[in-house]
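Sequence only, no structure available. Ideas?
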Amino acid sequence: MEAKQANGQALLRARFGIDLPETTVPEAIAGLLDRRVTRRYTEQDVPDALLDALLAAAQSAPAKSDLQQFSVVVMRDRARIKRIADWIGTMDWIATAPVFLVWCGDMRRGQRLCALHDMPHANNNLDTFLNTAVDCTLAMGQFMAAADAVGLGTCPISYVRSHIERVSPLLGLPAGVYPVAGLSVGWPVFRRPVSMRLPPSMVVHRECYDDHALPDAIAAYDERRGAREPVAAGSQKNGDIYLPREGVGWSENVARQLSVPERFGFAAYLKTRGFDLA
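Reply:
I predicted one. Tokens follow.
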């Protein structure tokens, strides 16, 4: 028991860079704490039977009101996967993955069900859009956890939305269906280091939201994270606007990214694809 608790504390220390002595880690969730992103894959294929089991696990995720408002497009054609990788341009590992999944929010299925039963679909609105995105994300997260459990590696790719006008026709997505994220899947060449996360005290709020301690906590986090994984010059966001410099920490890099609009045409595109976001 002491050995398991020591291992749990080691996992917490790796994840947060600090000791959390009051936290007990059950063996069943140790793998979740040790999750790592995978961006390099071997040439070994992922068998269809295994992939189907993982997709079944994804469909077992919670769904809002049992509406099940998501779909996933499985891509194995290397040339088609490479087209997406080339559009993105900065993520060459996508093209080396034996499987690329595109997870989609899906309002269309509900619209068709209403038509089958001669009823109007009266919920084409912002709430339905959010529900489709959440259903999709819950399923993708469950797929990732299942993939990790069998030794596969994954990497979610939000940048498919940066090229939505190309990705959607490539996949034949009809009105009412849109890509939420891509996911590269394969057997890892190696395990990357654990990415340090914000301390739980910054993310977990008890009874009510309280971020009064943010400045000091972020300064300490920047220092811890910078000592382990400093932000390289090539990883500093929006370098064409903010000149790269020494000493950029995690929080400044986040600010660099969030200070420049991303995908500001996303809502306009969704409206052309049948979504009323009112």
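The mean pLDDT is 95.
Hope that gets you unstuck.
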